[in-house]
Amino acid sequence: MTLQGTLLIGQQTVTGTQDEIHAINPATGDVLEPGYRGGSRSDVEQACKLADAAFDQYRETSLETRAHFLETIADEIEAIGADLTERGVAESGLPKARLEGERGRTCGQLRLFAAVVRAGEWLDVRHDPALPERQPMPRADLRQRHIPLGPVAVFGASNFPLAFSVAGGDTASALAAGCPVVVKGHSAHPGTSELVGRAIQRAVAKCELPEGVFSLLFGSGKEIGQALVADPRIKAVGFTGSRSGGTALMATAQARPEPIPVYAEMSSINPVFLMPEALKARGTAIAESFVASLNMGAGQFCTNPGLVVGLKGADLDAFVATAGDAVKASAAQTMLTPGIHEAYRSGVNELSGNACVNEVARGQTNDGPHSCQTALFTASAHDFLTQEALQSEIFGSASLVIECRDSDEMQRVAEQLEGQLTATLQLDDGDLDAAKRLMPALERRVGRIMANGWPTGVEVGHAMVHGGPYPATSDSRTTSVGSAAIYRFLRPVCYQDLPAGLLPEALRDSNPFNVSRLIDGKRES
Amino acid sequence: MTLQGTLLIGQQTVTGTQDEIHAINPATGDVLEPGYRGGSRSDVEQACKLADAAFDQYRETSLETRAHFLETIADEIEAIGADLTERGVAESGLPKARLEGERGRTCGQLRLFAAVVRAGEWLDVRHDPALPERQPMPRADLRQRHIPLGPVAVFGASNFPLAFSVAGGDTASALAAGCPVVVKGHSAHPGTSELVGRAIQRAVAKCELPEGVFSLLFGSGKEIGQALVADPRIKAVGFTGSRSGGTALMATAQARPEPIPVYAEMSSINPVFLMPEALKARGTAIAESFVASLNMGAGQFCTNPGLVVGLKGADLDAFVATAGDAVKASAAQTMLTPGIHEAYRSGVNELSGNACVNEVARGQTNDGPHSCQTALFTASAHDFLTQEALQSEIFGSASLVIECRDSDEMQRVAEQLEGQLTATLQLDDGDLDAAKRLMPALERRVGRIMANGWPTGVEVGHAMVHGGPYPATSDSRTTSVGSAAIYRFLRPVCYQDLPAGLLPEALRDSNPFNVSRLIDGKRES
């Protein structure tokens, strides 16, 4: 498949008019063809206009039609074959197996949302039947369903060229909800984006949906990205990236004449608490699996374990020594972009230069221009509690071990954490009481709490929460991974005493969609 | 019961230190005793500190304990007896029967939320069981529940001294969710607020809950209100009031180091569409019931029908004539506050002075210092479509009839509406096709669509939506009336592979709360 270097606006391919973007192969530094000229404001307007025009038809497609569309996108992505993973490898520096796995996850995610659409739980159908005889006032017939918010702007993420980009979790959940999507592709992987975008474009045509259901734009985040979020036809935003990028979109969304929700997944250091009994019993094994998690994807995961908290003493010293040895043996891995590599280097150097921080070990280097050298540091809890900078995320395989004098100090560390995606407890039976004491502080601050695992590797299921209090995300009330992500793009509408001919199909007495309903507040069996 | 004119901070009564607030009887202009000295920033801090300290214990109370607490508040409010409604009448100018009805609604609402807490749907329990044998990767055990956001700031509304004030819908739903509440009482009815606040204070003590579960502050919205929203321990805000008040709180909430959700219910003109067949068949009856709705509570409802849209012609002329006669016969009613009365007068005068607007009729006047004189106007759809000011809410019994040349122009009026709480269709069988054409535009813009009724009189049920796109509210994804209001104050947390001893009770295998669960995405029967 020959890449054309164009924007995709509805069913059209459009050559941009702004500065040209080229992907760079981070493993070699080579510039990749073709160039992608950025879109203009009028391209943004055209994409949004088409999305708005498609909305009313798309949002009332049958559950089956919409589910089939999501499945068709998955089929079309698979049909691209090795061209997709090869381009993904070239643009991201990630290994082929990872791209193949990510493609599986992306298509699995689309098919999961197809099943979610069919099940119809997201409609949240409620019916309070009329009570014409009620005293002192009769009750009207009241029915409720959820409808989609409107066209959604999605920003591709650098670290998931497939699973959180053009046809990733944000797009899948927004399309599942019934929202047309306008994607701003990430400048690091425009070719991968074009391939996937064309797959969606073909699925739109095959399913005979209105063309505005999907568009793909390229260009500067500051210009095209901001213009997209400011467009009055856009009603919600999905974003995965840096805190500065996310908060800039939040500000734009809030300054609009009509403010809109922004779902920005931004930064997290994912604290791991080493409880004393577990540390004593199996500190070596924990240290080894910790470094394996730290090195996954060159540490370029939102859930990378960037902070480890333990009680100062021989057991923690042994843990640090084992982890340090594993770090020293860690092979260098190519990072996603020159910018990310530079930010990693500078973050590690800053930590290393901090007088309160002790460098334990650095990993291997290689000749690659943008390789991540794993790094491990320690600092005292006292310093952590007084230096905000020690909570800053370093995107990549770097982690900081915090040594606490006692369990009270460990508790204070937990209570001073910013909002996080995850918290992990390494614990044995004897640690249960101490862990119980930590739980309330962790629940207040994180979206997912796990025991004896590692935060990397986020399951795409129904009970998953990939979210958490600010600044982990812009909106703690949701998740960006898993089937509940669909709720981000919905709102309730109540229909009072509507004649049957005007009622949406989902709300008819006969329950034609066969969905779970709340009748007078009781779950219908 | 003697009013003491104090703040209620946890179980303490505290005399404020700032300027004194006095309620004014709007029917007479009399100043009512006692005065309420406003709270200081340190009072705000103390209330928030107590709320934060109470949170972890309160949020883990059993469903039964929390439900019983809500019922105890209702009992304590009823036990105040006539003192409450008498003070409410004196402070609001509303009739006694209205205050009695509103007390019934307030206590009914608290008991409804008690039932909602017990049913546990709001926990949204999900469980994806472990799949240790899954290839290529095992699946961890994943469980999810919703937990409360944290302490909530609630702002009392002027127009519902009971049902949307100290123990109103926002407080009831926040307490039901497990959030401690700090109320900023409305300055128009401090005595009513103190009585209700003391009832909650007694319920907290009787149920042996931590005192910080509830506090009541008085003072300036600009100072105390803003300080409350800015306090880092506050995690969400409930507000019913003006657009300027709501947007000021939104700005403060967004500017915090940790932005928080604001649920502001602000303004709505609640368009009513007179479909041609219905207008022809029963225009007179519709006109009469329209003016009855317009006059309810002196028009001081968020759902007051402030805009009527019909097709120009003899049928609409007859409707306007009948409505005009009913307006002329409308008795003057006392408005809630001198400020609201002045805003009404000025809004009506502005409309009346608009060269494009035709004054149809004004209602009766009386000697009361703050009486609402009902008013009815007409304007052409052409002018409505070109003058944004004609969409401004006039809080009180004023309405504007828009005359459309044809159904296309009616469609354009619908498409140009700002976000609304409600839209109403007056329609007969022959209007079905025309109404169907309007539906998508209305669904995009409103929270509740009704047929052949009137928007005033909001049922507190499970299927109700009292919400809608901005500027009707700050967050269209929710409702502020009805049982679904509890979801405003919740967020999901996922528990991965947690030992049984650390799992929240709601998530245990045995389902001890006996709640509806989603197992592997399927609703458990």
Describe this protein's structure.
Two copies of one chain form a homodimer. Chain A is an alpha/beta fold and 525 residues long. Chain A folds into two domains: 8-130 and 140-266 and 476-488, Aldehyde Dehydrogenase, Chain A, domain 1; 271-451, Aldehyde Dehydrogenase, Chain A, domain 2 (3-Layer(aba) Sandwich), CATH 3.40.309. Helices cover 38% and strands 19% of the residues of chain A. Chain A is built from 14 helices and 23 strands. The first copy, chain A, has helices spanning 41-59, 63-80, 82-92, 96-119, 169-177, 190-206, 221-230, 243-255, 276-295, 314-328, 338-353, 381-386, 407-416, 432-445, and strands spanning 7-9, 12-14, 20-21, 36-37, 125-128, 142-148, 152-155, 181-184, 214-217, 236-240, 262-265, 271-274, 307-311, 333-334, 358-362, 371-372, 375-380, 398-404, 420-426, 446-451, 490-496, 517-519, 522-523. In chain A, the strands form five sheets. The first copy, chain A, has a seven-stranded mixed sheet with strand order 2-1-9-8-7-10-11, sandwiched between helices. Chain A has a seven-stranded mixed sheet with strand order 15-17-18-13-12-19-20, sandwiched between helices. A five-stranded mixed sheet of chain A has the order 21-6-5-22-23, with no helix packed on it. In chain A, strand 17, helix 12 (381-386) and strand 18 (398-404) form a beta-alpha-beta unit. The longest helix of chain A is centred in the N-terminal third of the chain and has 24 residues, at 96-119. The first copy, chain A, is globular. The first copy, chain A, starts with 6 loop residues before the first strand and ends with a strand. At the A-B interface, helix 4, strand 5, strand 6, helix 14 and strand 20 of A face helix 4, strand 5, strand 6, helix 14 and strand 20 of B. Strand 21 (490-496) of chain A pairs parallel with strand 20 of chain B. Chains A, B: Keywords: Oxidoreductase. Chains A, B: InterPro entries: Ald_DH/histidinol_DH, Ald_DH_C, Ald_DH_N, Aldehyde_DH_dom, Aldehyde_DH_Superfamily, ALDH_KGSADH.
